[in-house]
Design brief:
The chain is α+β, with helices and mostly antiparallel strands and 334 residues long. The chain folds into 2 domains: 262 residues, Phosphatase 2c, domain 1; 45 residues. It has a 7-stranded antiparallel β-sheet with strand order 1-12-11-7-8-13-14. Helix 5 runs antiparallel to helix 6. It is globular, with a radius of gyration of 23 Å.
C-alpha cells in the first residue's frame, strides 16, 4: 500500500509557479516548477501535470506522456504570443504495485530514504555541467552564482529534450521525496535527514520541511510530495541508480569511496559572475550545447592561465612595496 502527503507554498513570490499532482488510483505523482515569470510559469507547470495525467490515462508510457506535455506547451506558446518564454521542469513517478519509474526534466528532484539519504535524479543544470567537466567541486554547487540556471525544460521549442529516467522498488520503511528547488535549496539535506530520523509519519516530514523553507526566508515557491510504502513484503526488488549519497550526520555529499566531498578538488572556473539578489534561487532556462561545453573548457584553461599571470605580476609588486616600507622605516630611525 502506497501512502503520500503533499504541500506547496508560494514562498516570497507574487505567484506560485509550482504545481503538483497526485492520482493514487494510477499511482502517479508529479511536481513541476514553472519558468517564465508572472503567470507564464504557473500555466506551464499546470499544463505539464494535466498532460502527463491525460497521457497515462490514454495508455501512453510515462516518457511518452512527458513528450506529449512538451509538445502541448509548445503548441500553446505558438497559439498565444503572450505565452512566449514559459516553460517548466518536471519530476514524475509512476507506480506499478511497489515498482516505480521516475522521469524528470530540469532540476526538480527525487530523493530516496532507506536509513540513509540518496539522490536518485541528476539535475539538468549549468552547475552540474561544470561539475561533470571538473571545473567546480560538489561543495561549490550550492553557492555558485549560476546554480539556478537549468539546461532543459518542457516547452523550449527549438530544444531536443532528453528525458532522464530511473526505476526501483519501494520497500517497507523506504520513503521517496519529490521536490522543487525551492525546497531543497533551503531545507537542505541535513534538514531532510534530521526530519526523516525524528518524524513519526510522512505528514510530519512534509510539513516540517516546508515550514523550514518558509521560516528561513525561502524566496522561491516550495513544493514537496512525500511517499512511503506500508507493504510488509521484504523482497529485495530493484534498486534505483544513486547519483549522490549524503552523510547521515552532516548531510554532506559522499563520494563513491565514502570520502567526504571536500576531499576532492577539481579545477575551478575563473569567473567574476555576480548574482542578482532579486533572482536568487529563481529557476531560469539556458541552453547548454556542445559549443558551450567547449567554451567552458577554454574558459577553465584561460582562467587558470590568467591567475598564473596575475600571480607573476603581483608577487614582485608586493615585494617592492614591502622593501619601500622597510626603507622608510629605517630612514625614520636614522
Amino acid at each position: 500500500m502506497i501512502e503520500s502527503c503533499a504541500r506547496s507554498h508560494i514562498g516570497q513570490r507574487m505567484v506560485n509557479e509550482d504545481s503538483y499532482l497526485i492520482d493514487k488510483d494510477l499511482g502517479l505523482y508529479i511536481v513541476a516548477d514553472g519558468v517564465g515569470g508572472l503567470e507564464k510559469g504557473e500555466i506551464a507547470s499546470q499544463m505539464a501535470c494535466e498532460c502527463i495525467l491525460g497521457g497515462i490515462k490514454s495508455g501512453l508510457t510515462l516518457q511518452d506522456s512527458i513528450y506529449l506535455a512538451h509538445r502541448t506547451i509548445i503548441g500553446e506558446i505558438k497559439s498565444d504570443n503572450s505565452r512566449q518564454g514559459m516553460a517548466t521542469t518536471v519530476a514524475a513517478i509512476l507506480f506499478n504495485n511497489d515498482s516505480y519509474e521516475i522521469v524528470w526534466i530540469g532540476d526538480s528532484r527525487v530523493y530516496l530514504w532507506d536509513g540513509s539519504l540518496k539522490l536518485i535524479t541528476k539535475d539538468d543544470s549549468y552547475v552540474e555541467l561544470l561539475l561533470e567537466n571538473g571545473h567546480i567541486t560538489v561543495d561549490e554547487l550550492a553557492s555558485h552564482p549560476d546554480r539556478n540556471v537549468i539546461s532543459q525544460a518542457l516547452g523550449i521549442e527549438h530544444k531536443n529534450i532528453t528525458i532522464n529516467a530511473n526505476s526501483g522498488t519501494l520497500k517497507k520503511g523506504q520513503i521517496l521525496l519529490l521536490c522543487t528547488d525551492g525546497l531543497y535549496t533551503v531545507s537542505t539535506e541535513d534538514h531532510i535527514i534530521h526530519s526523516l530520523n525524528n518524524s513519526a509519519n510522512i505528514e510530519q516530514i512534509t510539513n516540517e520541511l516546508v515550514d523550514i523553507a518558509i521560516e528561513n526566508d525561502g524566496k522561491d515557491n516550495i513544493s514537496l510530495i512525500t511517499i512511503n510504502s506500508r507493504n510488509s513484503d521484504e523482497s529485495t526488488g530493484q534498486y534505483p541508480k544513486i547519483y549522490r549519497e549524503f552523510d547521515s550526520q552532516t548531510g554532506q555529499i559522499l563520494q563513491e569511496n565514502g570520502q567526504k566531498s571536500s576531499s576532492i578538488k577539481p579545477a575551478q572556473v575563473f569567473s567574476e559572475a555576480q548574482t542578482d539578489p532579486e533572482l536568487f534561487d529563481q529557476t531560469e532556462y539556458k541552453e547548454i550545447g556542445r559549443k558551450e561545453r567547449e567554451m567552458l573548457e577554454r574558459a577553465a584553461v584561460k582562467g587558470m592561465q590568467s591567475r598564473d599571470k596575475v600571480s607573476k605580476i603581483l608577487f614582485p609588486l608586493a615585494l617592492i612595496l614591502i622593501l619601500v616600507v622597510i626603507g622608510y622605516f629605517i630612514m625614520g630611525l636614522l
